[in-house]
Amino acid sequence: MGSLGFWRLAQADPEWIAAVDPEGTQYSAGDLLARSNRLVHALRDLGLEKGDGLCGLVPNGVEGLVLYLAALQAGWYYTPINWHLTGPEIGYIVADSDAKAFFVHERYAAEGARGAEESGIEAHRRFAFGDVEGFRPYEELVAGQPDTNPEDRSNGATMHYTSGTTGRPKGVRRKLAGIDPDDSAELMTFLLSFFGCTPGAPGGGNAEAHLITSPNYHTAVTQFGGSFLHLGHTIVYVDKWEAEDCLQLIEKHRISSTHMVPTHFKRMLTLPEETRSKYDVSSMKWAIHAAAPCPVPIKHQMIDWWGECIWEYYAATEGGGTIASPKDWLAHPGTVGNKWPISELLIVDNDGNEVPNGTPGTIYMKMAGTEFEYKGDRAKTEKDRLRDYFTVGDIGYLTDDGFLFLSDRKADMIISGGANIYPAEIENEIILFDKVADVAVFGIPNDEWGEEIKAVVEPAAGVAPGEALTAEIFAFLEGRLAKMKWPRSIDYIETLPREPNGKLLKRKLRDPYWKDRDSAI
Fold it and tell me: What residues does the AMP-binding enzyme C-terminal domain cover (predicted)?
C-alpha cells in the first residue's frame, strides 16, 4: 500500500509534531512512536497476545493516544471508557471486555479503583498515570523496555461500548484482519476521502491540524482523530470545550479539520458578534458534524460564517452511513446526505417491508466488509438485524435521488391521539428563539390522547424562566409550527442533561413523568 499510517509517517519524519495536549505541550511523532513501542514490549512481557484487550480510563491527551497506538500495532482491542461512569459501570466494561490490562488516570482514581475491584482484574494488571492506590505506576511498567519496533506486528482495533437505551452497554467487536498495522491504518483513512480530506505533509509546507472537541471515549472522536493522525495531521486536544477557546485554538494552530455536534454550533453562534469576528477561522477546510439533526437555519448561519467547509454525516458505531457535502446540503437543506460508496440503506415499516421514497420508516444500514457482533451477545446482534442490515432505531425517509432525511429516534416518537409526532421537528423550531439555550421535547402521559407534548427548556444566559418566557416561546412558534405540534406545557431547567458528544439524555427527563405508569409508551 502507500505511505500513510502513523508508524510509517513517524519513522519517515520523527520531528513532525503529531499531538498537542490540552496544556499546549507538543509531542513529536518520534516520541509517541517510542512510547507506543515500549508499551507493546511491556504488555507482551505481561502475557498479552493477539486478540486480547486493554481498557483505559483516561482524559483527552497523549496517555490515551499511546494506549491506542500500542493496541493498533500489536493486534489488541483497545476500549476507552467513559469517565462519567460509576465504579460498578466501569467494572462491568473491564470484565465484559476480558481486559488483560487496565489503565487509570489519577483524575479518575476513586471510580477507577472501584471499577477494578468490581471487575476482579488481577492487581498486577492495574496501571496508573499518576498516583492511584493499588495500581502500579505506568513508568514502572515500561521502565527498561526498548523503544524499537516490536516484532510480529499486526493490526488491532478499538472496541467501543454502545451507550444503548436499554440494558447494559455492549462492545462492538470486529474481526481483526491480521494485516500490517500501517496498511490497516491507511484503510481507515479511506473514510476521510469521502469528505475530500487530503494527506498532510509533516515537516513540509502543508501542515494540517485536527481539533478534538469531545471526549475521546466516543467512537466517532477516536475514529476521526485516529484517521486524521494516520493521514499525517497534527491532533490538538481540548480538555473541556468552550466556544471562545475553540475559536482561539482554530486561529492559533491553523486548524483545518474538526468533528463537532450541532450543540457546538449553537454555542459558538450565541457568542457576541465582536467576539466571533476577533478570530481568524479561514484555515478550516473540513468541519465535520453528526450525532444529532442540525436545525437548518443554524447550519445556514455556520456556512455564512465559516464558508462551505461544513460537512455532515449520519452513521453508527456498528458501521455504514451517509454523507452530505456542503454543496449537497445547500441543494437539499436538512438532509444528512446520501449513502457512502461502501454502504447501503433500507427504510422499512414495522413489519420489515420496504417503504416508498418519501415515507418515513426505520432506517437500516450495512457496510461492505465490516461484519461486527455485540461482544458476548449473539441475541442482541441478531435482534437489531434485518437480513444483513442493522438498525439503531432511527426513523427517516429517502428522496427519489437518494438523500436521507432523519425524522427522529423511534424511542422518542410521540403518539398522541394516533398521530405520530416527531420531537426533533419541534426542538428544531424552539431552539431558534434567541432566549432559548437548549431544549428537549418528549411525550408525557395523557389519559385521553395517550401522550401529550412536553418541552423542557434551558433559558439563555440572563433570561428568567417562567410564564412570561413560555408566552414568548408560544408567540415565536406562531406561524412556524402547526398548533397540534406545540407543547402543551413548558418546564424549565438550569442545564439539560447531555453527554459531552452532544447526545441528549432524554430518558432522564422523561422517566419522572412516567414513573407511576405501568408502561412508558
Answer: 425-503
CB atoms inside a 10 Å sphere around CB 476: 17
Interatomic CA distance for residues 207 and 53, integer angstroms: 34
Please give the C-alpha separations between residue 316 and each of 172, 219, 223, 467, in angstroms, as whole numbers: 10, 9, 12, 40
pTM of the model: 0.81
Contacts of 143 (CB under 8 A, 6+ apart): none
Write out the three cell numbers for 97: 471486555
In the numeric block, which cell numbers belong to residue 405?
432525511
Strand pairing of 404-409 and 394-398? antiparallel
CA distances in angstroms from 240 to 39, 68, 245, 370, listed in the order given: 28, 21, 9, 33
Domains, the chain, in order of start with CATH, read: 6-147+179-212 (3.40.50.12780), 423-514 (3.30.300.30)
Find all residues with CB under 8 Å of 303, minimum gap 6, and list them. Answer: 310, 326, 330
3-state secondary structure of 162: coil
**Alpha-carbon span 263 to 120, nearest angstrom:** 38
* Residues forming beta bridges with residue 236, ordered by sequence position: 20, 211
Tens place of pLDDT per residue across the chain (521 aa): 568 899 999 999 999 999 999 999 999 999 999 999 999 999 999 999 999 999 999 999 999 999 999 999 999 999 999 898 888 889 999 999 999 999 999 999 999 999 999 999 999 999 999 999 999 999 999 999 999 999 999 999 999 987 654 457 788 888 899 999 999 999 889 889 889 999 987 655 557 999 999 889 888 899 999 999 999 999 999 999 999 999 999 999 999 999 998 888 988 998 999 999 999 999 999 999 986 668 889 999 999 999 999 999 988 766 678 999 999 999 999 999 999 887 888 899 988 899 999 999 999 988 766 665 667 666 666 666 778 788 878 889 999 999 999 876 666 778 775 567 778 888 988 999 999 999 999 988 877 677 889 999 999 999 999 999 999 999 999 888 878 889 999 999 999 988 766 778 888 888 888 876 544 43
